[in-house]
Structure formats: structure tokens, C-alpha cells
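Hi support team,

I've been running sequence recovery on a batch of backbones for a student project. Most finish fine, but this one hangs at about 90% for roughly twenty minutes before it completes. I'm not sure whether the input is malformed or the queue is just slow. I've pasted the C-alpha cells below so you can try to reproduce it. Let me know if you need the job ID as well.

Thanks,
M.K.
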């Protein structure tokens, strides 16, 4: 039996039901009922929290007072950058990521930074603002948090005194505690483990996650306490809950990366107080998450060794350019069907490119085993990486290295033609900044190509021409090149 405080609301038509049903009786939609707290006087207009505005007379745009938000630095430059300069008091931030990726670690470090309120090169006199931070954990015991803090070297000093930890899953109690202790920031780890009294659904259900988040955000706005919610998200982003919060919170940050590798990307997919262009790059080290100094370079090879089969590509992660090393190895195959193995890029995409190379560019790999890889454990599905991947394969087959200062960008079509990709100029600029001097990009007429200082941009129409530029012309007929021209 549903208690009086909750109703199951259809997300499609808004009809309220007393108990959960698979299908909405009003509109007939399936699986759309979500348990929702009934608020008095709020039952009709429960379209979502009007957090930004308290009603008043309309004002002209020019008459509005400028409200440049105050920001509390987290002390971790990469997080501050992604947030747009720091945490805004009263804002709600969702930090999503796969389990074990390092969310709790990063937030404990951020908590220490918030407590101290330090900012490097601070001009606005914000330094030392800091304050209490409340860390509510439903995932671990306080003892486990202490262990982690010890590992991160956070057990001593001012920060340790200013961070309070509570193992609590009841949102009402967490809000109470926050109102009592008045921290500058409240961290809830994770939103899937907390529950609200009024609902009877289990922790982690869509209803619980949403109502808990709403209650916490209400407090955030009302009391000016910044709230950071942790949300576990699986690779396809489907784990119930966090996705439904994205439109409620002020900022959504995602921590990504390969758990078995050390590099992590922190991206803002939404940010009401800043841009979503910034990407923070971290390295999971022995003592927590360390900032990576030049992130655009992080995924390029660092060795002096320059073997055939390595080509730099430029991708856009979110909207920020990253240079990445694409590696390929081509080896004579044994018996049976040849292997196509890829990590970081899609295996079926690799198979398509291998076929196009054979039929359209004279790079016959039909009897070869083929391995492809992105350096640094990065995983991307950017069509702009087609060209560097093809060049890496050609380079490996011919055993001829591609010049180190060459970057390749472009999507490869089934006819072997090169197609433009979005953000070409931005990618080229970043490559030029990092010391690349030549770029091979899709294009036939010179006038269409962006001009980038210090960079020779070569436009080529098809894969064959691109390979000619990067690896040199085909020395002779290839094994299974069935191309007519
Ligand atoms: P964690 O922050 O618990 O991940 P999440 O909260 O996203 O589930 O960290 C996960 C991993 O990080 C864990 O397997 C151990 C590793 N780790 C380090 O490598 N160095 C460290 O200093 C810490 C604290 C953890
Ligand atoms: Mg955790």
C-alpha cells in the first residue's frame, strides 16, 4: 500500500496513481510511473522546482542587476576550470561516473580544497575563504572514509578539522545536519544510496533519486550551501536515476576513463555557471587524483621511439580539442580468418576501414592480422579518427614511419573519399600549439581550408592521396587491391 505522502505519477501524461502499475491507465504508456512525494498546495504545479526565480514584477533586461556568482575554489585547478572557476554557493552539482572510477577520491580531495578555500594566483581576495564541509556517505562507513583520507594525506591540518563525515542514508537527517552545522558545501556520496521518508520505493529507484535530489537542492538554494551529488552511471548511462537529475541540477560533471588505465577525464556536460568546453584531465596516482599539466598532450606518446604505425589525430572531447596517438600493428596472419582487434576504437569500424584500405587505397590487409589502439586508455568514437587510423595501418604495413609533426583529421567514406569533420579549425589550432607542423585534412580546393599559424594544412580528396602524403606513394601493386583507377 502506498502511503498518503506519495503518488505514482505518469511521466508522459502526468496522471497520478495510488500504486505502481506497469502501464498508465490514463494514457496507456508503459513503464512511465515514478513515485513522487505529494507536496501540499504543490500538487497541481509540480512541473519542477522553480529554483531560479521567486516571482516578482518583470524587469527590463538592462535593468537587471549583474549577479556574477561568488565562487569557492576547490583548490584543484582542473575541477575549478571545469566548473568555470569554482563551486557556486547554493548550486547543485552532479558528479557522475562508473563505479570505481575515482569519484569519492576526487571529492574527498576537493573537500579538503574547499575547506581551505585556497586558490592559486587569486586576485579577487577569495583566498582563505574556506569553511566547513559535510561529507555524507551512504556507500562507505566513516572508518572507510578515514582510511581513504589517510591514503590521501588529509588526516592532519586545518582541512581535517573542517571536514565532517557522517555515514547516513536518510536525506531528511542529512538536511537537518547540514542546517545545524551550516557547511559551505555538502557532499552526498551517492544519491543512489539515500532515501527520503515519504517514499517507499527502494534506494536508487527513479522516484527516490529524484525526490532526494530535490530535497537536497531545496536546501542548497534556501541556505546557500553548495551541494555535490555523486551518481553512479554505467557506460551507456542507463543506471536508473542520475540521468533524470541532469535537467534539475546546475552542473553535471562526468568522470570518465578506463578503470584499468590511470588517466581520467572530467567533463562538464551541463554548466549553468560556465562553459561546457573545458575538460579536466587527471591521473589516478598512489595518493589520489593528480592533475595533468598539459591535458591536450596527455594522450600523445611520450617516448622518443618513433616506430611505423603511429599517427597523431586531433579529436574533440566534448568541445575541447585533444591530441591523441593512434597506433596500429599489422602482422602477417596465420591460418584461419585474420584478426581485427581494437581497443579505444570500435572494432567494426576498424573492419570497415581495413576493407576500404584494401579496395580503394591499395593497402591490402586481407591476409594480415590487424591491431589498433588509442594511447592512454582513451575511448573515442570520433569519425575524425578514421584518417589517422588508416594512415597508421598503412604506415605499419609499409613499415615506414609517419613524420612526428604530422597530424591527420578526417572521416573516411566507403568510397575511400575523405569527409569533413566538425570543429576542424579548433582541432588544428590545438595541434599547432602542441608543435605539429603539418596537417592532412579532407578538402580539395585550398580556399576551403582554415589557415592556422605555423601549420601547413594539406587538403586531400581521398584516402589514396592522404597515404601518398603521409607514407609516400605505393611502391607496387598491393596484394588484394581491387581498385580500378
Ligand atoms: P573511488 O574513489 O572509490 O571510486 P568511486 O567513488 O568512483 O567508486 O576509487 C576507485 C579506485 O581508485 C580504487 O579501486 C582504488 C583507486 N585509488 C588509487 O589508485 N589511489 C588512491 O589514492 C585512492 C584513494 C584510490
Ligand atoms: Mg565511491
Amino acid at each position: 500500500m502506498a502511503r498518503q505522502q506519495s503518488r505514482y505519477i505518469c511521466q508522459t501524461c502526468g496522471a497520478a496513481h495510488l500504486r505502481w502499475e506497469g502501464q498508465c491507465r490514463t494514457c496507456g504508456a508503459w513503464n512511465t510511473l515514478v513515485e513522487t512525494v505529494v507536496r501540499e498546495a504543490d500538487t497541481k504545479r509540480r512541473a519542477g522546482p522553480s529554483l531560479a526565480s521567486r516571482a516578482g514584477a518583470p524587469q527590463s533586461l538592462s535593468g537587471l542587476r549583474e549577479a556574477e556568482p561568488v565562487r569557492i575554489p576547490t583548490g584543484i585547478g582542473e575541477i575549478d576550470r571545469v566548473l568555470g572557476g569554482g563551486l557556486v554557493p547554493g548550486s547543485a552539482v552532479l558528479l557522475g561516473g562508473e563505479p570505481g572510477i575515482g569519484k569519492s577520491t576526487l571529492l574527498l580531495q576537493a573537500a579538503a580544497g574547499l575547506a581551505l578555500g585556497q586558490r592559486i594566483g587569486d586576485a579577487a581576495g577569495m583566498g582563505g575563504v574556506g569553511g566547513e564541509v559535510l561529507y555524507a556517505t551512504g556507500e562507505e562507513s566513516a572508518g572507510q572514509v578515514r582510511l581513504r583520507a589517510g591514503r590521501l594525506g588529509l588526516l592532519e591540518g586545518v582541512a581535517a578539522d573542517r571536514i565532517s563525515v557522517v555515514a547516513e542514508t536518510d536525506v531528511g537527517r542529512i538536511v537537518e545536519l547540514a542546517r545545524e552545522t551550516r557547511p559551505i558545501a555538502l557532499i552526498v556520496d551517492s544519491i543512489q544510496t539515500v532515501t527520503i521518508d515519504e517514499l517507499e520505493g527502494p534506494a536508487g529507484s527513479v522516484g527516490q533519486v529524484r525526490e532526494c535530489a530535490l530535497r537536497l537542492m531545496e536546501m542548497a538554494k534556501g541556505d546557500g550551501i553548495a551541494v555535490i551529488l555523486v551518481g553512479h552511471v554505467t557506460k551507456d548511462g542507463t543506471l536508473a536515476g542520475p540521468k533524470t537529475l541532469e535537467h534539475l541540477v546546475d552542473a553535471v560533471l562526468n568522470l570518465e576513463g578506463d578503470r584499468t588505465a590511470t588517466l581520467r577525464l572530467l567533463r562538464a556536460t551541463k554548466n549553468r555557471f560556465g562553459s561546457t568546453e573545458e575538460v579536466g584531465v587527471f591521473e589516478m596516482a598512489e595518493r589520489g587524483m593528480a592533475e595533468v599539466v598539459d591535458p591536450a598532450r596527455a594522450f600523445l606518446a611520450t617516448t622518443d621511439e618513433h616506430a611505423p604505425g603511429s599517427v597523431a589525430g586531433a579529436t574533440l572531447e566534448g568541445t575541447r580539442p585533444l591530441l591523441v596517438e593512434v597506433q596500429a600493428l599489422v602482422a602477417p596472419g596465420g591460418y584461419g580468418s585474420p584478426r581485427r582487434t581494437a581497443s579505444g576504437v570500435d572494432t567494426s569500424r576498424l573492419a570497415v576501414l581495413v576493407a576500404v584500405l584494401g579496395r580503394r587505397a591499395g593497402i591490402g590487409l586481407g591476409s594480415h592480422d590487424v591491431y589498433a589502439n588509442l594511447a592512454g586508455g582513451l575511448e573515442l568514437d570520433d569519425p575524425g579518427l578514421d584518417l589517422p587510423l588508416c594512415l597508421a595501418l598503412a604506415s605499419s604495413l609499409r613499415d615506414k614511419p609517419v613524420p612526428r609533426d604530422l597530424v591527420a583529421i578526417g572521416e573516411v567514406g566507403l568510397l575511400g573519399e575523405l569527409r569533413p569533420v566538425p570543429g576542424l579549425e579548433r582541432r588544428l589550432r590545438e595541434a599547432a600549439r602542441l608543435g605539429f607542423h603539418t596537417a592532412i585534412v579532407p578538402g580539395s580546393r585550398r580556399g576551403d581550408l582554415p589557415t592556422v599559424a605555423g601549420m601547413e594544412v594539406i587538403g586531400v580528396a581521398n584516402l589514396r592521396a592522404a597515404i601518398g602524403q603521409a607514407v609516400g606513394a605505393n611502391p607496387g601493386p598491393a596484394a588484394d587491391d581491387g581498385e580500378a583507377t
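--
Follow-up from support: It reproduced on our side and the slowdown came from queue contention, not your input. Residues 42-51, 119-127, 476-485 have pLDDT under 50 and may be disordered. No action needed from you.
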